[in-house]
Amino acid sequence: MSESMSVRASAAVLGVSPTTIMKDLKRAEGYAPDDTGRIAVGKVMGLDGKVRPSRRVDTTERDARISELRASGISIRAIATSVGCSVGTVHRVLKPRPVRQ
Q: Where is the Transposase IS30-like HTH domain (predicted)?
């Protein structure tokens, strides 16, 4: 596998899910947010063959804030406006995740 492949392309080549690739990347050294909260991934090659710069954003604080606001009874739309994201993002963050064993 090439170091310059996207997560989706790497997953397709290895026959695993993109989530598995992301979990493995998180375990690798140097995969931590910088001062701006972004995680440098470098350049990636997509399935279409184009090379693009790739930087992931650490959303841990935003997600925690969304959960706090919802627990206090704020509506989904008000949370999205307050945090500066879409209603769909709020729904995704609040969606219960299955427990893995």
A: 65-95
pLDDT tens for residues 82-100? 999 999 999 999 998 777 6
Helix axes 76-83, 87-94, angle to 10 degrees: 110
Q: Which residues contact 35 (CB under 8 A, 6 or more apart)?
A: none
pLDDT of residue 93: 92
Q: In whole angstroms, how far apart are CA 79 and each of 39, 44, 87, 96? A: 25, 33, 8, 17
Angle at Cα 46 formed by Cα 87 and Cα 54, nearest 5°? 60
SS3 99: coil
The span from the CA of 100 to the CA of 26, in Å, is: 17
Return the structure tokens found at 37. 């909260």
